[in-house]
């Protein structure tokens, strides 16, 4: 039971990094990124290939996954700068599907649908599995804390205020003298890089990645986490990510209570419950559990 809880905490931390990445692009800059699973896959495959094929250290592989996903995000944004709203969402969704198809068909590079196994993990094989899980949990919590610190500093900084101004009205921000295109590229790239970091950490924890892992459903879960936690609130989206994992795992224990259902039916029922949870949150808590903290207006001087 202890190992199970530690593993769920690790996956919750990975979802939290994905949620922070989405929050930077969507919550701060207002850019809808439905291609989150694609950047997640880019980071995972870049790190796995760097460490398994080219023999680089694990830390270098994780850094490469972070950078590769960030570059992919920057290039995608440069191509789609004139798109916004639904059009941007469609293009990013298409990007994620392209990445998944490449991973499925380019066998010479990714081993196709069989995936890449035997990915190195820090101290894996030197310690017993329970100790490895605990070490990895401490490692990923430390990385999450650093990412949360920088995201929160960004939110409070003038840079973060510019991103929120672009989110609310990019034309007004441009009139105010802000280089909107540069800010959009930077914010989207940073959000994509965090998703790549999450993918690299996932691969080194599970030691196996395959195209089927990086489906669009992952993006849906992260949107649920950000919406539930509070769009624009870094602490809220982290809490939302852990709540999504908790709901996903809690529904597994409903199996003994529903005799006569097949495994596929129970899986579909779990997805229905998650969808209902999203509808309820949007109905009763549209701003999330922790709404975005708005800056206080300066007090007028007393005459």
Protein model, in words:
- This protein has 303 residues and is mainly alpha-helical.
- The protein has one domain.
- 71% of the residues lie in helices and 1% in strands.
- A two-stranded antiparallel sheet has the order 1-2.
- Helix 1 packs antiparallel against helix 9 and helix 2 runs antiparallel to helix 3.
- It is globular.
- 40% of the residues are buried.
Q: Reading side by side through the largest sheet, how are the strands ordered?
A: 1-2
User: Mind telling me the C-alpha Rg?
Assistant: 20 Å
Number of helices: 12
Task: Give the helix proportion (percent range).
Answer: over 70%
Kindly state the mean pLDDT as a whole number?
89
The low-pLDDT segments are none
Based on secondary structure, the structural category is mainly alpha
In total, the number of strands is 2
Distance between the termini: 65 Å
DSSP strand (E) fraction? under 5%
Biggest β-sheet: count, sense, barrel?
2 strands, antiparallel
Structural domain tally: 1
């Amino acid at each position: 039971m202890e190992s199970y809880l530690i593993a769920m905490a690790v996956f919750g931390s990975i979802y939290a990094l994905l949620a922070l990445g989405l929050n930077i692009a969507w919550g701060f800059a207002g850019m809808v990124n439905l291609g989150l699973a694609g950047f997640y896959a880019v980071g995972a495959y870049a790190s796995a290939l760097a460490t398994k094929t080219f023999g680089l250290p694990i830390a270098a592989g994780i850094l490469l996954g972070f950078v590769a996903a960030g570059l992919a995000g920057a290039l995608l944004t440069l191509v789609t700068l004139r798109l916004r709203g639904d059009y941007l969402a469609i293009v990013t969704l298409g990007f994620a599907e392209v990445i998944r198809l490449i991973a499925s068909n380019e066998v010479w590079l990714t081993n196709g649908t069989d995936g890449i196994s035997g990915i190195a993990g820090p101290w894996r094989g030197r310690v017993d599995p329970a100790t490895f899980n605990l070490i990895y949990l401490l490692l990923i919590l430390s990385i999450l804390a650093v990412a949360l610190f920088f995201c929160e500093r960004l939110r409070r900084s003038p840079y973060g205020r510019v991103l929120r101004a672009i989110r609310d009205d990019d034309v007004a921000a441009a009139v105010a003298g802000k280089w909107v295109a540069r800010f959009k590229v930077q914010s989207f790239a940073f959000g994509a890089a965090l998703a790549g970091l999450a993918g690299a950490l996932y691969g080194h924890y599970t030691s196996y990645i395959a195209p089927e892992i990086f489906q669009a459903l992952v993006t849906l879960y992260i949107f649920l986490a950000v919406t539930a936690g509070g769009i624009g609130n870094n602490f809220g989206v982290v809490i939302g990510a852990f709540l999504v994992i908790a709901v996903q795992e809690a529904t597994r224990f409903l199996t003994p209570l529903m005799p006569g259902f097949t495994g596929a039916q129970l899986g579909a029922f779990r997805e229905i419950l998650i969808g209902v949870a999203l509808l309820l949150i949007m109905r009763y808590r549209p701003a999330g559990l922790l709404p975005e903290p708005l800056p206080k207006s300066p007090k007028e001087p007393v005459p």
